[in-house]
Amino acid sequence: MSTKRKPVIAGNWKMHTTLGTASALAEGVRDRIGAPDVEVVICPPFTALSTVGQVVANSPVRLGAQNMNAHAKGAFTGEIAPDMLTDLGVTYVILGHSERRQLFGETDELVNAKVHAAIANGLVPIICVGETLEEREAAITDTVVIGQTQRALIGVAPERFAALIFAYEPVWAIGTGKTCDASEANRVCALIRDTLAKLSSYEAAEQARVLYGGSVKPETIRAQMAESDIDGALVGGASLEAASFAAIVAFDRTAT
Ligand code: PGA
To answer: How far is CA 161 from CA 165, 188, 239, in A?
Structure first.
């Protein structure tokens, strides 16, 4: 964590919760976090955005979506347009999550189109990049992460870079309980920042936030946040319990 950048702790609820459990979870988070020094974002499923938005209104908790379509409107059955999200008070959107890439065939080109759509609609994209286990074992982690980062940003104006959020999520660490070693995660986060600097400027890259994601827990967050280039966390499993998510938000007060 750098003192220059405000940390972001984002919870990705994935395909969990119905209205009752979503409200209860959002209330639990809202009531536990107090006035945090970090940006706190929760990303419920689309169906719970409106309800959760009401629960967290007038609180420091911000609303994020887990995905969206890049088009403004049209014949795209089952899809959600950017302004359908902003209408509900959504201000962040996770793009290119590895589950979208692996299970739903999202390509770098599609992620790039979504990044443009997010920016055009005033949404802060949380752009996910990361290598699979096979890619790590083949020692191509850096090539994969740099390539995904560059291709997500094709055509994005350099002056937009400072407001971007990236999440380095090694695929082998997601939902597996295996966290990436904090110093290795930091090395890759710094590589993402270096890629941003080369595409825009050192100053813009120094302002962009780069999060780590992959089995983040209250017990791991403090070591992760002690690293120079990790500016927060994208949390899956541990965001489904208000107490553990709140403990991650309060990382500087959480025991290691
Ligand atoms: P996890 O998920 O914390 O359950 O590993 C992280 C993510 O998918 O963003």
So the answer is: 9, 18, 27
Side chain identity, residue 185: A
Of the candidates 99, 106, 131, 169, the residue annotated as catalytic is 169
Q: Tell me the C-alpha distance between 147 and 140, whole Å.
A: 11
Ligand 1 centroid–CA 201 distance in Å is: 30
pLDDT, one tens digit per residue, over 70-99 is 999 999 999 999 999 999 999 999 999 999
Distance, CA of 102 to CA of 23 (rounded, Å): 30
Six-digit token string for 238 = 């541990």
Q: Rounded CA gap, 135 and 145, in Å?
A: 10
Question: 8, 12, 172, 219: which to mutate for ligand 1, most atoms within 8 A of CB?
Answer: 12
Cβ atoms within 10 Å, residue 136: 18
Give distance in angstroms: CA of 158 to centre of ligand 1. Answer: 29
Q: Is the CB of 213 under 6 A from ligand 1?
A: yes
- Rounded to the nearest angstrom, the distance between the alpha carbon of 185 and the centre of ligand 1 is 14
Distance of CA 187 to the CA centre of its chain: 18
pTM: 0.97
Closest atom of ligand 1 to 177 CA is 5
* Angle, helix 218-225 to helix 242-249, in steps of 10 degrees: 20
